[in-house]
Design goal:
This protein is of the alpha/beta class and about 425 residues long. About 45% of the residues lie in helices and about 15% in strands. A six-stranded parallel beta sheet has the order 3-2-1-4-5-6, with helices on both faces.
Length: about 425
Amino acid sequence: MKIAIVGTGYVGLVSGTCFAEIGVNVVCVDTDEKKIENLKKGIIPIYEPGLEDMVLRNTKAGRLNFTTSLKECLDDVDVVFSAVGTPPDEDGSADLKYVLQVARTIGANMNKYLLVVTKSTVPVGTAKKVKDAIQEELDKRGVKIEFDVASNPEFLKEGNAVDDFMSPDRVVVGVESERAQKLMTKLYKPFLLNNFRVIFMDIPSAEMTKYAANSMLATRISFMNDIANLCELVGANVNMVRSGIGSDTRIGRKFLYAGCGYGGSCFPKDVKALIKTAEQNGYEMRVLKAVEEVNERQKGILFDKLNDYFKGDLKGKTIALWGLAFKPETDDMREAPSLVLIDKLLAAGCNVRVYDPASMEEAKRRLGDIVYYAKDMYDALLDSDALMLLTEWKEFRLPAWGVIKKAMNNNVILDGRNIYDIKELRELGFVYHCIGE
């Protein structure tokens, strides 16, 4: 079976590579010539554990290929996945210009039946727009060629995307014809053989499922952060509360960790888009609006704690940041709490020293020379007045506290992910604050 995947960003590259790994012949398409040339050489544009080796292996085997021309590969494939970006527009809605551009290119150049599958996260009703765009181009050409559209949203977690694709919780597929369902069943047959759940449904339901899933997870995070902030005020311990409510099988333990806010390419964008979709249909998503409000406030909570400790006198203070990516095992800084915090620290007159195991280059691209980029986690601490932990990378979990004490001017630690033991650190002479204790 031969497929094309348009877009070699996070979703497209991971999906294409993993499809190749299970024996599908894949051509990945992108208009970025430099990116395509690098991919042909095995140089990948993102940090994702296990992905580089898989790209090299499948490229060498001939199952994974890269091109800048969608037009040239359409005659050779059965299915075209659209995995291009859907960035938030100024009003919070998903920008579909790249999705529709792909659809128009397909309609203008296809010569046989194709199944066009939307892999990008798109609002309900997008498949109809894609279908109309393809048909419009066919009408311009005066040709009648059958085609189908489908929705196959991704549920990949950055930092664990390869495993998520190869061993999915579920695969959601929205179709509107038996022919499309048969093609998608054939494509996902290896997963069916391994008893993974492939759930077929109508297209609008598949499109909604992606947004609903991410919005639910974001809701759990903001709910727990709200509880954590209240715990501090009433003298409760949020970690004990989390253990208590997470033991209820109706609730479960996942995504109940208090912290300094969520970020990334999915949750912020998808929450905004679902709120906007509701507005466009005359409905208000009041819960999700609160989720977004709580999260934006939470991104500044460590700054508030720091400001309170130093009684508003932050000018000239040197602050060390451990972690810049929005989560471990990725270099993605989109909507990361670190960006909000750095802005606040600099505005208050602080000197900022930063370290992250994966996202230093991304940070330099985003921030320029306004912060000091440390060589390692201990270099970031030299002469610092406080350490703020923002991303729970494994190498931060058991640091050398004696070295840290000698490196810092003030032994102040603000833990934005609750990974340290409050009793241990206070016994060692640190001033320690976390979330919800």
